[in-house]
Specification:
The structure holds 2 protein chains of 2 kinds.
Chain A (H helix, E strand, L loop, with lengths): L54 H4 L19 H12 L1 H39 L1 H5 L1 E2 L2 E2 H37 L14
Antiparallel strand pairs in A: 1-2
Helix pairs in contact in A: 2-3, 2-5, 3-5
Chain B lengths: L2 H25 L3 H6 L6 H12 L2 H14 L5 H16 L1 H7 L4 H9 L2 H34 L3 H52 L17 E4 L4 E5 L3 E9 L2 E10 L2 E5 L4 E4 L7 E2 L7 H5 L11 H15 L4 H7 L5 H19 L2 H11 L2 H5 L5 H9 L2 H38 L4 H21 L5 H25 L5 H25 L4 H8 L2 H18 L6 H12 L23
Antiparallel strand pairs in B: 1-6, 2-5, 2-7, 3-4, 3-6
Helix pairs in contact in B: 1-9, 1-17, 3-9, 3-13, 4-14, 4-17, 4-19, 5-11, 5-13, 6-13, 6-23, 7-8, 7-19, 8-9, 8-17, 8-18, 8-19, 8-20, 9-14, 9-16, 9-17, 9-18, 11-19, 11-22, 12-17, 14-16, 16-17, 17-18, 19-20, 19-22, 20-21, 20-22
The chains are: A mainly alpha, B alpha+beta.
Chain lengths: 193, 586
Amino acid sequence: MTGLSGPRRPRRGRPEPGPEPEPGPEPGEPPRHKPLPGQKPPPGPAPRPPAQPPAAPESPAPRRVAVSAPRRHRTGGYSARAGAADLHAQPQLGQLYVRSLVRNQLRLSLGVLAVLAAVLGGLPVALAALPGLRTAEVAGIRLPWLLLGVVAYPLLVGAAYFHVRHAERVERDFTDLLGGPDAPPAAPPRAAR
Amino acid sequence: MNPGHGLAALAVVLVATLAFGVYGLRLSRGTSDFYVASREISPLLNASAIGGEYLSAASFLGVAGLVMAYGVDMLAYPVGYTAGYLVLLLLVAAPLRRSGAYTLPDFAEERLGSLAVRRVAGVLVAVIAWLYLVPQLQGAGLTLQTVTGAPRWAGAVVVAAVVVGVAAAGGMRSVTLVQGFQFWLKLTAIAVPALFLVMAWRSAGAPALTGPDIPRFDRTTVVTLQDPVRFDVTQPVTVRVTGRLDGTPYTAGAVRLGDGGHTATAGTALTFPPGAAVPHRHGLAPASGARWADPLSGAGGRSHPLYALYSILLATLLGTMGLPHVLVRFYTNPDGRAARRTTLLVLVLLSGFYLLPTVYGALGRVLAPQLLLTGQTDTAVLVLPQLTQAGEGGRLLAALATAGAFAAFVSTASGLTVSVAGVVSQDLLRGSTRGFRWASLAAGIPPLVMATATHGLPVADAIGLAFAVAASSFCPLLVLGIWWRGLTDLGALLGLVAGGGLAAVAVVLTSVRGAGHGWSAALLAQPAAWTVPVAFTVMITVSLLTRHRLSPAAVDRVMLRMHLPEEVGSGGSALPPVRPPTAGRS
């Protein structure tokens, strides 16, 4: 495995796709080819061509082979990575998917950013326009002090929590879409809510 | 303050830092360990390290000092420092981690495939890091002077030596451990005395902070000056003077201070009677409690408060993502999702910390108003703790605060040194471990010279200028690079030069001229509000004009890598593996 991704985490909330017959090579290494966007792709990874060259068994060297659960469990499932290979094998289709993922993430980020800008950017204007706010007191503390000194922080953490949750959901939807039992449709998906 | 306790606190911090550094040295084996700690760091440790690295002299000392002098408007700094991490989370964290770029120049080259942009980015990294390092070292000098009476340069030299040593010895791994430890040290060092501070304020009868009067000494107060001071008297007062005042030497002589400016030399002791109005250092306008507590009032003599507030917010919100030492940290996350979660944890930690400096800034006005006379409001966090408790308790609290302050200088400065050294060694010295060690030295020396040669601005203001440069250069590069396919190398190059250059010029002019009045001074003192739009405009316009330079396939490949979740991405061999930071340049 190459350096980019580091340890992978098991994906949650999605059942492993159907039983895999061959304990083949590192899943997804050889890029599989899929039908063109227009055609109906085969459902799921099950009809994998048996002609796939299994790497280890063919090598003549008597190497000891550890028989254990396939490594794909660690990597979070077989089909997602096959889907990634497809993305690379078919640039146009892959680009459509990735563009929609980027768009969804950007829309999410800009939404939170807009709220942040409205709240944080609106506060000075509100204080400038409404002098009453400047000297108002809540629980014995001046309102501007309370807002800037205390209230701002839980709001920032809350916004961050919201974003992390939703950004992960966007990615999960995208992954499910790529590798789910139903193969991806030809049209670019709109994965976000 | 008792020099013995202060020196002991300093020694404890330095020994602990070196001990963690040596421990890290034993752990770091190869070049990749050296740079990125093998990316095996737990989220809490990583978040603590990010927080520890981020909470600099500006956060630990500067925020309280500015609030004490200039009032509620200055809370824009801590809010902005924290919100900057939210913006970083929203726009940069995960894609940047996935891009595999280790430094900002790496990102620039990877995204745009241009060595020229890489070099400009490298220069900007050094400029920002040096701007950021200078106030750290000056803060160290101020702290050591406050605690022991040592000359200003001594603290700067001590911190610079430790930092360069640690960075050269252990690289990233040791720095991570050191900083995780130092975050918690800083939080303790500011939280525990704050509790005693509030108790002391209440036991003093909870004097009003927002009264109609300017600050007054509530008891007979001896003010010993450590630097020559020029101050303005608004209400004539008779003081006892030992030392040299307005050019005349006195020994416990009674002097009537009339209205207007006076000067006193270093070492002069002034004894004020109870009830005397506190004279303010020249340039700091006396403000009543009511005016000080009032937002946008320009208390303390700051002009154009509304513009300054927005510019501070913009600089800190957008500048955080462009700080070189912040960025490197994200590489130690195992993947993009961990990068996001770590950032969330960082926000929680920072939020807890930033509740506290405000307490010092507010209570400092009634408990230690003499700082308004000496002008060293930046030392409020150091001076206040021992006023809260008589005897040994107060000295221990002061020692704790001193330890926290040195933790702040050492952690931020080592993070910056490592990141500059990373850039220098990669681009100039071919990325060997030995080169990294020499580069650490190269990263530490120039800011040490600058810090000892100049006296500088209030710490938080000086840091704010480094944020402004980062916000006007790397923020547009990162945001447009990550989210807009249309960014071209030429657009990025000219945008970096225009935005970063204008902001840097404004910083230099402000540092040389000091704070001034009028619009031109306000625009130069807080440049972000205009340099950030300039940078974005130049980048977008030039990119649109040079669209023919785009290579869609290359852009697609990078976008794929940055935005694809790891569980999907890089599975196929179509994606080239990210080279380790040192590869590919030899």
